Amino acid sequence: MVQKKIGWLVPFVLFGLFGLFFYANSFALESQSERILNFYSSIVVNKDASIDVTEIVSAQADQKKIIHGLVRWLPTHYTDSYGISRSPDYQLRQILVNNQPALYHTQRTDNQLAIYIGEKDVTLSPGIYVFTIQYHVDYAVNALKDADELYWNITGNNWDFPIVKAEADITLPEGAIIQNFAGYTGKKGEKGSDFFTRSLADNRISFATTRPLMPGDGLTIAVAWPKGIIHHPGIGTQLKNQLYVNRGGWIAIEIGLILLVYYFIVWYMVGRDLRPGTIIPLFEPPENLTPAVLRYIRRMGYDTKALTAALLSMATKGYLTIQNKDDTFVLTKTDEDNLLSPEESVLGRRFFETKSSFQLQSSNASVINQAKKDFKTTLKKTCADQYFITNTSYLLPGLVLTLLAFFAAVGASHDHAAALFAVIWLSIWTFACTMLFLMAWRGIQHAYYMPSFRYIFSASLATLFAIPFFGGEIAGLIMFSRVLPISLLLLLLIIVIANIVFFRLLKAPTPAGRKLMDQIEGFKRFLSTTERYRLEQFTPPEQTPEQFEKYLPYAIALNVENEWGEKFNHLLVQAGRDPQTYRPQWYSGDVWTGTTAATLPVFLNSGLSSALATSSISSSSSASGGGGSSGGGGGGGGGGGW
Fold first, then answer.
1. Which of 165, 320, 404, 426 has the most CB within a 10 Å radius?
2. d(CA 288, CA 296)
3. Where, by residue number, does the polypeptide cross the bilayer (predicted)?
4. What secondary structure letter does DSSP report for 48?
């Protein structure tokens, strides 16, 4: 009964709300005494892909912002759908006020052409004025795959005043038939449909808005027709125009090409590796070198795995034991005083300087980082330039060229400050994302080989923590693409990759180093060959648990820990022993389920490498047609008073 009594009120309430909305909108327009009463644009498309534009702007002036006249802003740079930076060359033909020739002056900035209509010494009386702007634009028609298209921002989205009504009349060349069309209203990026169209002829169509456009809103249109009518400029003319428009971009491309040629010449002169000799399996380390030294020579540089191999080597020599306790690796020095290599002695002195046990955790980050530094220094002194030459001095000109290319690319942007900020921000953010990815990946590997709740939770937490940063990376790339063409983004990416690749390629072994590397490959072949019959002709030594443990650090150093573990696992099975019961005397841990002789090398490498990487970071707190839209295409800009 109550529903029947109040049901008749619903239409009145809705009518009242609609009236209130209409009144509020009208009040908003009336409260701004200065406004654009009508924005009319007539665009004639020519067969040479140029357009002639006539804009007739009827404005209400009240000596607030429109004091001397109207100012029209036209963008001088925009990026088309192919990522190519375009710079329209506006050729002004006529400026009128109330159908009479008017004085005007122009002003260019990084991204716009400002047309000031009126005289500085003349103040307009309040009233309605009609401003007419006629201009010509070359290369305004887009050549799509199956059609030609005019994609044009009629009003622009940066007017200081509301636009009560906007209209556009598009006329194509004779013989063209409109194939498709679209329109968009609203703020930049929106796809509003507050407009209607009217077909005036096969080659002519008009657009008109159905609501006022508030400041920030605009009208954008797209009209397509079959190919064959428009005669687009040849490739030579287009390149010439692009060279003029994107001078900074072309300079960046030229610098990038010079950089690649420079790196290739330098690599050819000093970076080419000597040809490897005949590889013969060796059953013991060449020249009795340590695992860390073998890895350092083979990679011609340092990484964390060399430190992991050194710790395992110290353990197999009886110098220390390794315990995995409560997610932390604990190193304990034994009473045995075995002979260590120089780089291993450095680690022993640093880790056990004040006590006989040392935990690989973030609270000891300063000690671990100093130990790493001393370890790398000792390795470098041991090898010096005896086995390989880094040729790092040749990278300096490459880095200078890289910086010049980046500055040229920033200069090619229409917004230099935004482009420079994007380059700096993305460089730092990308580095942070790379570090987070490596930490998360190590955590996943750790959880894979030690599948306990603690490690799985830790890996999941690291992964979830990294995801928002990668989201920020994508958002940054999108932001970057708005201030620089995609083609330049790809160029900068290629330049960065070239520096990384040639940093590695410029390293070259000496003749002595080449000979030693061949021997290292022979020893690696012995460690990685699981079929014993392939080695029989070389009389391999008998395989024992002692040999397995002795060469385990070498297998990790040479990236064949999987094969070496499988080989020993097979040996235990043949001997009738359960691989899961095998444990080295120098290791103990809370997690052993699923670990066998085959997975032990991978388990230790993953766990120790992860622990060394994460524990070297100090604990701290930190904070961290349908494809268009309003504001897209050519044209645009906005306007105001002056």
1. 320
2. 15
3. 248-270, 394-412, 418-441, 453-480, 486-506
4. T
What's the start-to-end Cα distance of the chain, in Å? 64
The H or E element spanning position 181 is strand 180-186
pLDDT digits (tens, 9 = 90+) for 51-91: 899 999 998 888 888 888 888 888 877 655 554 556 777 88
Architecture of domain 28-232: Sandwich (2.60)
| DSSP-derived pairing of the beta strands 638-641 and 158-159 | parallel
3-state secondary structure 322-351: EEEECCEEEEEECCCCCCCCHHHHHHHHHH
pLDDT of residue 131: 92
Model pLDDT, residue 54: 92
Retrieve residue 306's tokens.
């060399």
As given in the structure block, the two tokens for residue 559 are 């990236």
- Please give the single-letter amino acid code of residue 409: A
The residue length of the chain stands at 642
> Measured between alpha carbons, how far is 445 from 274 in angstroms, rounded to an integer?
36
Q: Where are the domains of the chain?
A: 28-232, 240-272+392-506, 291-391+509-611
Secondary structure (3-state) at 210: coil
Q: Which two tokens stand for residue 506?
A: 């410029």
Helical residues (DSSP H) of 105-246, grouped into ranges = 235-245
CA–CA distance, 417 with 422 (Å, rounded to integer): 9
554-571 average pLDDT score: 81
The SS3 of residue 554 is: helix
Tokens of 268: 């050819």
Calculate the average pLDDT of the chain: 76
Find, among 358, 308, 290, the residue nearest to 605 by Cα.
308
Determine the Cα angle at 588 with ends 585 and 593, to 5°.
115
Question: Which alpha helices (DSSP H) does 317-452 contain, by range?
Answer: 342-351, 365-383, 395-412, 416-449
Rg (CA), the chain: 36
CA 600, distance to chain mean position in Å, is: 37
Is residue 446 exposed (0-12), middle (13-18) or buried (19+ Cβ within 10 Å)? buried
Global pTM reads 0.54
Beta pairing, strands 158-159 & 388-389 = unpaired
> How far is residue 152 CA from its own chain's centroid?
30
Nearest to 84 by CA among 153, 139, 34: 139
Contact status, residue 344 vs residue 313, Cβ threshold 8 Å: yes
Asked whether the predicted pLDDT for residue 603 surpasses 70, the reply is: no
Is the dihedral angle over the CA atoms 479, 484, 486, 489 positive or is it negative? negative
CA dist 193 to 185, 208, 219, 475, Å?
6, 11, 9, 27
The three state secondary structure string of 232-284 is CCCHHHHHHHHHHHCHHHHHHHHHHHHHHHHHHHHHHHHHCCCCCCCCCCCCC
In the Cβ-directed half-sphere of 166, how many Cα atoms lie within 13 Å? 27
Structure tokens, 389:
């030459």
C-alpha separations of 457 from 327, 446, 451, 469, 620 in Å: 11, 11, 10, 19, 21
Closest residue by Cα to residue 163 from 356, 295, 34:
34
